[in-house]
Amino acid sequence: MSKIPFTGKSQQARQQQVVSTDPLAPAQAYNPEHPLMEDPDALAMRLVESEDFVRRNKNVLLGLLAVVVLAVVGGFGYYMWRNSQNEKGQAAMFQAVSYWEADSLQKALKGDGRNLGLERVASEYGGSDAGNLASFYAGVAALKDGKYKAAIDYLEDFSADDYLVQARAYSLIGDAHLELNQPKEAADYYNKAANYNANEYFSPAYLLKEGTAREAAKDYAGAITAYDKILTAYPAAAEANEAKQYKSRAEGLSVK
């Protein structure tokens, strides 16, 4: 005699039902030994449906698998390439940085005929950390050399997680704009420098520069706001005394 499979409709299942205290509520079948086990018939049906889904969508699934594999391989390849570019870039910029430190700005920027200058390193290794750092050095060198627009371009290409260096880059861009007689743009960058991971050591100096730049742009209300922030947020800063004097001056100019 063949065995009847255990399902929700079998005689065994019908015999194992919870008796509700509500006579109108339907009885609930359960398996007291394995209450979490699925009905084998339903499980078998699911497997059949899954196999049918895979069969019908085989090409799509293979395409998705190929995309995932290519993404993993491509990501690993890019990681290796970037590390290689970074090492080459660091080696290439070594002599240029030496010239930069010695204030030989033209050689630092353009190279010496045998070694690449910072401009070439920033261009050829732009996707690496070395190329990114070369942009910073090139921006500072261009600023010192009076090439203010070039300095802005290089420093805007630079980015860093280090809050000191990034804030310094913003401030240098402000300096370049100020040299180009663009005080409003300069003030905006000084503000970015002051508020990039704001701290009591460097933010007051950037705020003071922002205030003076806004005065130059005849934005006296903005200048007063910058000076006020020094006095309220950083009252113990060395710049606080100057901020008081400059604030009084800006207040006087604002009522004329």
From TrEMBL:
The keyword DNA repair does not apply. Pfam families: TPR_16, TPR_6. Residues 1-34 are annotated as: Disordered. Keywords: Membrane, TPR repeat, Transmembrane, Transmembrane helix. InterPro entries: TPR-like_helical_dom_sf, TPR_rpt. SMART domains: TPR. The keyword Ribosomal protein does not apply. Residues 8-20 have a biased composition (Polar residues). The chain crosses the membrane at residues 60-81. TPR repeats lie at residues 167-200. This is Putative negative regulator of RcsB-dependent stress response. It comes from Hymenobacter psychrophilus. The lineage of its organism: Bacteria, Pseudomonadati, Bacteroidota, Cytophagia, Cytophagales.
